[in-house]
Specification:
The protein has about 170 residues and is mainly α. It has one domain (about 5-160, about 165-170): dinb family like domain (Four Helix Bundle (Hemerythrin (Met), subunit A)). Helix content is about 60%, strand content about 5%.
Length: about 170
């Protein structure tokens, strides 16, 4: 099994806001608020969630591990919906980028070593997790939500492709 380097995680963390910005750059408002089904998130809500996570999730958990471990407080996955109510997608992606850059700067100042990455905290559902696992999850979380936004936009536009529908796998389950 290959190891995931801190440098590759860091690079991924820095790129995510730019990728989100590129995804929404030309999307019309109706596509940004379109839902795949009742109870699913739209792009605005996804952006609210990832921006809020920069405040409430990732760095507080990193710090908890570095401060000696202990149980992570549970995360309210939809808290960002209230925090960012009324924000535009452009404003949200800008906020996400600013918060992310600040968090990566904080990570850089921590000067994490391989020994730090082996330190453990306790997830409220999963139990013991290492800092390395948390960092990998942070990057994976970004990729998952960027893919979600891409899928939402694909399906919002896909309603209009007519006879080309069979050629788009993402439209087959929509």
């Amino acid at each position: 099994m290959t190891t995931l380097s801190f440098a590759s995680i860091r690079a991924s963390l820095l790129q995510a806001p730019r990728t989100g910005e590129a995804l929404i750059a030309a999307a019309p408002k109706h596509a940004l608020i379109w839902r795949e089904a009742e109870g699913t998130w739209n792009c605005i809500e996804v952006l609210s969630h990832v921006a809020d996570g920069e405040i409430t999730n990732w760095m507080p958990r990193v710090q908890r591990i570095l401060d000696g471990g202990g149980r992570f407080p549970p995360i309210d996955r939809e808290a960002g919906f209230a925090r960012y109510r009324g924000w535009t997608a452009d404003a949200l992606v800008g906020e996400f980028g600013q918060l992310r850059r600040a968090n990566v700067d904080r990570l850089d100042r921590l000067e994490l070593t391989p020994a730090h990455l082996r330190l453990v905290g306790e997830h409220p559902e999963f139990g013991p997790v290492t800092l390395e696992q948390l960092m990998a999850t942070w990057a994976t979380h970004d990729f998952a939500h960027l893919a979600q936004m891409s899928r939402i936009l694909t399906r919002a536009f896909g309603k209009h492709v007519g006879p080309w529908r069979p050629y788009f796998s993402l439209l087959q389950t929509a």
